[in-house]
User: Fold these one by one.
Assistant:
Number 1:
Amino acid sequence: MIKPILFVDIDGVMADNISWWLTLYNHKYQTNHQKKDVTCWDTRICINAELSPYFDNYDLVEPIAGSFVSVNILVTRYRIVYATVGSGSNWLKRYISNPEIIRLRDKSLLRGFGLIDDNPENLDGFVGERFLLSQPWNRGRGLNESSWEKITQYLMK
């Protein structure tokens, strides 16, 4: 049986990288920024913090709550392919042996059944089912914001 392809982003969808990067930034600069404070994509604007020096640091990144539970359910019906521009591929391999990973910047190039992402712009150009995993930086963007639990319930109906 050929399973429909479900693309899943890594950063901000599987990996809670922003919380770890904020921990590193806060330690270095003696600040107290939290994930909930990151209400836009450019942290230099919304919290006046430059996080790019930490973008490759996944040392103590934790999974997004419910992400692996949901993927373990979804894999029974879908071929899960991780699509990312970030550096989370090696982090993912700590949790999943031999994951299928595509590294690309333009997710409109993907062709499959669906895409789960935290960036509304990535979903705009995708042809297929689109799921926006709700995060503080993507609220009110005009797409249905959702949790892993709701996405999984919908996809397993």
Number 2:
Amino acid sequence: MAAPGHFKGALHPQPWKVCQVPVKVKICGVRTREIVEAAVDSGADYVGFVFFSKSPRYIAPDAARPLAELALGSIETVAVLVDPDDALLHEMLATVRPSLLQLHGSETPERVAAIRARSGLCVIKAIGVATSDDVAKAAAYRGIADMILFDAKAPAGSDLTGGHGLAFDWRALRGPLVGRPFALSGGLDPDNVWDALATTDADMVDVSSGVERAPGEKDPGLVRRFIQMAKAPRPLKRAIGS
């Protein structure tokens, strides 16, 4: 998967260059045609379907299939899985035929590599972050996952690995251990996504609860506003060649 907004080294590179960096937007936990259409019409790049039964955003593969067909040719679809076994993986791949996979559990690098090989799809691996020490865990997945997604670490004892509406200190993603490409999630909404991008220079932002009127119930107006704010011009500094 090509790195969104990735810069290649210039002939005579300068240490930094101020530029407008394109960002990808993923609307996650989608369960209705209305939200797929709002995401497409507003310029989102991905819609995500959550195949984890404990989530309020869960959707069964049979119910996700017509939404994936609606999205086909207009926007990429992401299947979000939490420590899936081979049976669930097979059912989801055969029924939904997503564009990409997102692994949001405690999958080891070896399991991520096996799922990537079995599916033939690009894989996003989520890493829960509370402090900058957690960011370093991404190194084990570089070269295996196609993108790392940094999400707020779930509260202790929670059955859900994401979708809590919690944020972490975005400054943790400023260090050299982050690597590219990377996505940002956790506590994002239309009012803070611009600042989040200005702080982290993430390649992609991923939102779920921040565009909902109730758990699992997306608001098309919030979806549109989130995409508009995420895609708004930002003069950002990114190291050339990063």
